[in-house]
Amino acid sequence: MPRSEVKTELPPSLPNNWPNPSAEDLDERPLRKITINGDQRFSFITNFITTSKYTKYTFLPKFLAQSFHPRKKMANVYFFIISCMQCIPIITNTHGIPTVLMPLSFVIIVDGIFAALEDLARHKADAHANASKTKKYDKQQGAFVTVDWASIGVGDFVKISNREVIPADVVILAVKEKTQIPEGRAYVETKSLDGETNLKMRRALKCTLNQIKEDSDVVKCGHGEVEMEHPNKLIDSFKGTFTLSGAEKEVIDPNNVLLRGCTLRNVDWAITVVVNTGLDTKIMMSNTESPVKASSLEQRINVEIKRIVFYLAAVCFLGAIGSFTWKNKHMLNAWYLKWTDADADDSEDILSDYNATGEFLLSAIVQFFYYFLLMANFVPVSLYVSMSTVKFFQAKFIEDDIQIYHAETDTPTKVRTMALNEELGQISHVFSDKTGTLTCNIMDFRKCTVNGISYGKGITEIGKAGYQLQGDAIPDDILAGEEMSREHAEMHKQPHVNFYDQAIRFDLVGAKTEEQATALQDFFTVLALCHSVIPEHDEETGEVHLSASSPDDEALVCGAKFFGFDFIDRKQGNATLKLSTGEEKTYKILEMIEFNSDRKRMSVVVKKDDCIELYCKGADTVMIPRLKGNQEKLLADTCGHMTDYAKEGLRTLMICKRTLDPDWFERWHSNFKEASTNLAEIEKRLMGKRNKIDLLAEDLETELRLLGASAIEDKLQDGVPGCIADLAKAGIKIWVLTGDKVETAINIAVACRLLHSEEFMQQVIITAEDEGKDFKKEKLKEKLIENIREFEKDVKEAGSIDLVKPRALVIDGPALILAMDPDIQPYLLRFTQCCKAVVGCRVSPDQKRQMVNMVKTKIDGVKTLAIGDGANDVAMIQAAHVGIGISGQEGMQAVNASDYAIAQFKFLRRLLLVHGRWNYRRMSRLVCYIFYKNIVMAIVQFWYAFQTGFSGQKFYFEGGIQLYNIAYTCFPIMLLGVFDQDVEEKIILMYPQLYNNGIRDAFFNSKVFFNWILAGTIESMIISIFPLYALDNTSKPQEQGGDGLLPSLWMFGATSFTLVVLVTNFKLLMNQYTFPWFSIVVWLLSVGSWFLSAWGMTSILFVDFDGFKVYEELMKNHSYWLCCLVVCVALGGRDFYYKGYQRAFHPQLHHILQEIDKFNLENLDNLQIPLPPAPHMYMKDRLKDLPEHIEESENVELLQIVRRATRTASDLFLPKGLGHAYEHSDLQTVIEERNIVLGRSAIKTSKKRMSQIMFGGKAGGAQYNERPTPGKVTNKKSFGEGLDFWDDDDEEDDEEEDDEKLAAEEESGLSLVGSFLTGLFVSNLKEATEKSKEEEGRTASKSGASNRSQSTDEGDSWRFSMGF
């Protein structure tokens, strides 16, 4: 963004080389100096802002530079080079006219329109901001006058009224309050800055507070100077001093500053002085652009474009070689080149001295570039504009989806980076914050412990999960207490309180002991006073509304109110409590030391009567070392209760107090004030260095008397457990990273269905506290290696990773510091690959970022997603491939840094599984098809070169070439990219396993792309050759009444081009599933536009001289229409029958679900689908201590051979062989299966054993969340229940290639393709199933039947169902 300096001859206020000054530059000008009531000594930028990218003068050069960036827009650069080459006479095939510029210009213009519209919105916002009004002091008039924001300068006095937006960064000099004694308090709403809706208190400078009472007092302040830090984007930091003539220097801290964009509240006006303007304000400096992210599909496209160019070069090289060979073979012996000079005496051949080889070689080089131009459309010119348009509409559908709209807060889903739409369908790892993301971040006061006695009945949902984890039943009295607590909360309707325990009411009035009553009163007094909550008084209703920066503080204040300690006002340095008796008590606030992430505690010093007391609350880890002695019993009881609370997922704080000696406090307070106003100490504190401010706070917060602890509930959001379970079924690994204790994090993970009990999941817990003081890197490394070896041993013994008890890693922040060491990190990473879930406890924001980067950069093939709601999640969100912000209680910083914004975590399920999967599949199909159709169109002319001596003769109409990507094939594929749905959303949500193809890159990879290119190459050969024979000699000789004319090359070309348009558009239909009416209309218009435009272009002489009247004659030729019919049926029939074959004999999961849903075979609710295998994701840095893969035994290799031999009719409904026996079973199982398939029944098998064989080997239909115990067989009451549709052996590359090959094949809609085979398969399947049930019934009714006969009967029924 450009900086608008004031046009003066004064030196600039900023150091040289700003914004990246050197140390010498900063030494030369270390501070920003502003003169008050005087002329400025330095120049400052104006308050005029410009956030737009372009102006009317810079738009064209800047936009063109971006459009032809060689890394970002490679295709545009390619076509620009092609257009330049078309102007070279020796190689041009367009008479020197750069015809490619027409479609390229269209693409650039469309992109330019989007860019201009986007930037126009910025211009409007800038104009509105610059023209906003405020009041500036005019020295000549001696009053404040209304001016535009853009007119404000540094050092100006500005008067801001109540509810007015602040125009620049200003320091408060005075405010008009409603109290008689001025305190200089103002309140500011920072919603536009950080998204927080609570009010924050600011104060005027003490040296000017009493001097300015009205407007005219401004000039009476005298001259002064502000020395401050240079502009930065730290919104919670401000360092500076304010000096008036004749007065002491006063420190300016963040509480004295109002920032641009915030709103003044609760005062009539505030008189301020401007210190930062325009782009130097903190909000403008914070508006840095997020990291530019590109989807993996876009990155893959750039790779494939390079390969396509190499392919084009290879084709051109073959054409050049063919030209050289043909000329060398034919032209030297051509009779018409054997010219002689008749006047010469010896009549020599004039070519005797001609260097034919050299000339032909030079001609071949020229021919190479000629072919390059002829087939330049290998790379589609419409690729980027088509993708951008489709993504735009995809984003609109996401934003308009009512099912991911939160009605309570009126918050729709917001797409901030539409370039990542398809990336949502490929996520392999989700990194989630807890507070506000998995939970509501709306706190309720739930329980407390005071003086060693715990109060509060009932149990949270997370507590119930804890009982479930241990396998214990919840006691009835606890369940009854929870019911009473819920009813009690509904009856009293106290906000942020969900508490029931009658004992505390009696103990408050001394029913137990006076000591307990005093402890309770002190406890709730601390809760009511030790906070930063601001009460807002509604003058109309008289009600008091609490505005808190922390939801914990608000819940604690509401809890104190619930028990009769109501905080009602804070003014003139006093806090007032209203007791349940109606009495009001006023406490003098002497000092407040606020909470921060380093201190993890908050303290306030109050004076009541003559007694001075310190009230303190904080985390147990920092409070326990500060307790005075002789409290061991109380501390043990309190810690025990806090542990119980943590198991219920409750957030705990220790509550303490200390009585202070007045003289000691007076000395301490004087020292603390001096240190707090010392710029050097402030600087040290901001940099995390040892400083006097923190040391003095440490002196104060010692010898504390423990009162008890509070417990606050942060409830899980609705739908979180189900969402996480479905994401796990989809094959996504989920990591929860939180700052909570280990016990709290584990129980929350259990409640979210992320962790399971030891019976179903082995939890590996690594914490520095549990490991002891001797916990070092070597010990951590040994523990990781031990767990890795144990897991691999279990996998080797079981034969499949699916039969091994899944692992989960729980690690805390201190242990993670050691684990992130370069020597340990590979082992941590390797073990996390063995785990189904990872939970990080007590991790910092930077550790969250490190963990995301570790997975993102160290493992190939992963796609990471980070989701959070607070400022501490921004680093993690920006580091991930896809960042999602939740519009919650912690502001908008996470949303502003994100790529997508949602209101609830549960919306992630639909965003990924439905929109993500659809968009990934659509974009994959769109990209492949766009390249395919261009290959078909371009390479046809290469095949024609075999008929023309490789002369490179063009036989397309130039107008057709230019309109091909714009009119004939553009719009149908764009509609597919926006609307196509291979599976309905209800089925996708019912079977999340469908998502796994995206994780495996099944829809777009090099193999898929090559299949499309190969298909286009083969089809283009048929399109080129067939018309040459179909149209040849179709005209009658003159003696038979015909014209005797043979078809021209332009007729061949027009026929081939017609076939290109028809075949590519029919190909699109073959790969489309949904057909809305407008899609059919657009398809017909696109195809019809070729016939109409071809007739129009060839009917006007000056439009196409070579093809004049050609198409008119061609349309009269019956062979032309027959040729179109035959080629379309032949090429379309190949796709038609292959897809039918694939559905019948090698169906994928979505094929089966489509058929079951369409033909209502069974109730979909009863179909059980196991978890598909994880994709191959290998660490980039191999471990030397451990084998990378488990070696397979000879038996496994034998099982694979036998399994492949059994691929017969069982593949009707199991694409990889019946039961995947080689993976799930032993050799005997495979032999039994093979005998069943081949109709043999010599081996004795029980009915239970047969069921295991038919429904997935030993374990049956194992699922991630419903894993059967060994020997337990899944009930096969409906078709497909318990069947395994995937090969779970990740170590078999050839099997995964089969999966990718099947996924790569073109699919078709049920309404067009495979109707006959599908119908036959469905009818046979129904009949076989019914007969199987009848056979089972007859077998069961026969008394005394042997197990052998039952087995044989069942084998016969299944043998019949498979067609034997």
From TrEMBL:
Active-site residues (renumbered): 433
Subcellular location: Endomembrane system; Membrane
One annotated Gene Ontology cellular component of this protein: plasma membrane
Gene Ontology MF: a single term: ATPase-coupled intramembrane lipid transporter activity
GO biological process, one term: phospholipid translocation
Domain P-type ATPase C-terminal, chain residue ranges per copy: 895-1148
Enzyme class at the top of the EC tree: translocase
Ranges for region Disordered: 1-25, 1258-1310, 1328-1364
Species annotation: Triparma strigata
Residues reported to bind ATP: 433-435, 595, 617, 651, 738-740, 842, 848, 872-873
Pfam families named among the record's database cross-references: Cation_ATPase, PhoLip_ATPase_C, PhoLip_ATPase_N
Protein name listed in UniProt: Phospholipid-transporting ATPase
Keyword Ribosomal protein: no
